[in-house]
């Protein structure tokens, strides 16, 4: 799968020399276009002048002219000013001062050095909100906030593309604005020193030959461009113990598997990664079967404890640039969730293939969404290196298609070595040597499972905001049968299912004392709260009640009810 989907390029001094686009450069651009990439020109020239000197504007999906102030679509001839026209009094003042040369575009006013002093004085005298941008002797006057970066942003919004998935190339100081916003910044060999210093890659050749060099590298070894600009595409997982080496999550190393015992901190680690990804401007799509992520950051959430998700509104939201989307499947039964997931996941992957986003997909409770028993994943057309994070307590039960795409394993909890051993057998490879000790809270094993590298003990980053567990999901939702509590008693004479905490309290009040004491003495309540409710603090408090020998059942019921209600008072229904 391609990661970089578009080239944004300056014209003069980058693909053109003395205003001329030569045949070899045209051939290179055609090759890139035929490979399915988009082409965007970002130039300071005015459109009539550009049409005069460049006969191959048809190669470009969009042209950003006037240094970011005009958006043009060659295929349809549509043009859209991205700012107001030049103030007439300003143009008249410059003409009265005999400023030469003087060019007036749809938004831009341009001249050359050393006229900048007179231009600046006119702006001040008239009290105008205008800025001056320099480009190798050219003096360009534009409304404040308009530059090549803002113009490229408008073009990318038109195309539905993220700047993360764009390679940008230029040669002069006015190119820095848009180069810095893109996924990989490339300076051609003739670029100014300041541009070279700011670039991720500098080509050996100059101008069009340099762009052809870039395109050849791009199509033969795209990973080299990702490596060169790795900080633009990666976020921190944490750092190794001892030497404090930073560990990064990057998009070209395959999917990520977060696994470990229940209540060990998988959701906490996933939340920290999601925060980092969101902060970096990556678009996210979260599949949330248990309603854990609905309050994460700036997300558009579909579904809740009472509303079943339908595909089309979700997919419409995912298609929109800038939306982080959360799919809450809490209202659907555990048995129905794989089918709903299967109706959404392939179209989301298709959107990613076309637009490069959502940049990351998270699938919580992945063993329910993609279980091996149903050969889930066989029809999903999972692609190599899909940018997905799968969270599960049972990695060995995941569909084989998923496991084949795992590149990174993050293992949490004291059973981490056993989980990696089990996973190694599923992957058909020897179990690697383990670190000297098991992960403690706040730590994880980091294993690049496609390499011969052994797992590393990593101190993982913590989220800014802890996951809020006081949700309707646990208080009033419908947990799956595998996560419900069953009051059975010593001889399994009963089979009373509590699929949430409120039912647990209700049934617990009504069952006979013998049944209640049986579960109390076997620490069944705290075990359920730790493994299924995933609340270690609540489990610890209830375990203390269970350990109180001789406690009256009425007192135990009261204390456990208080512990639950203090944490899980269900939110009120919205007004209306």
What features would you describe in this structure?
The longest helix is centred in the middle third of the chain and has 19 residues. It is built from 22 helices and 25 strands. By secondary structure, it is α/β, with parallel strands linked by helices.
**Alpha plus pi helix count:** 22
Structural class: alpha/beta
Uncertain runs are: 570-576
Number of strands: 25
Helical percentage: 25-40%
Lateral strand order in the biggest sheet: 14-13-23-22-21-15-20-19-16-18-17
Q: What is the beta-strand fraction? A: 15-25%
Largest sheet: 11 strands, mixed
Distance between the termini: 47 Å
What radius of gyration results from the CA coordinates?
Answer: 30 Å
- The average pLDDT value, as a whole number, equals 90
Q: Overall 3D geometry?
A: elongated
Topology, please?
Elements: E1 6-9, H1 23-34, E2 38-42, H2 47-53, E3 62-65, E4 70-73, E5 78-81, H3 88-96, E6 103-104, E7 109-112, H4 116-126, E8 130-135, E9 138-143, H5 148-159, E10 166-170, H6 176-179, E11 184-187, H7 193-198, E12 201-202, H8 207-220, H9 222-228, H10 230-233, E13 235-240, E14 246-249, E15 255-260, H11 266-279, E16 284-288, E17 300-302, H12 311-319, E18 325-328, H13 337-355, E19 360-363, H14 366-369, E20 388-392, H15 400-404, E21 406-412, H16 416-427, E22 443-448, E23 456-460, H17 472-475, E24 485-487, E25 496-498, H18 501-510, H19 513-521, H20 524-531, H21 536-546, H22 553-567
Parallel strand pairs: 1-2, 1-10, 2-3, 10-11, 11-12, 15-20, 15-21, 16-18, 16-19, 17-18, 19-20
Antiparallel strand pairs: 3-4, 4-5, 6-7, 7-9, 8-9, 13-14, 13-23, 21-22, 22-23, 24-25
Helix pairs in contact: 1-8, 3-4, 8-9, 12-13, 18-22, 20-21, 21-22
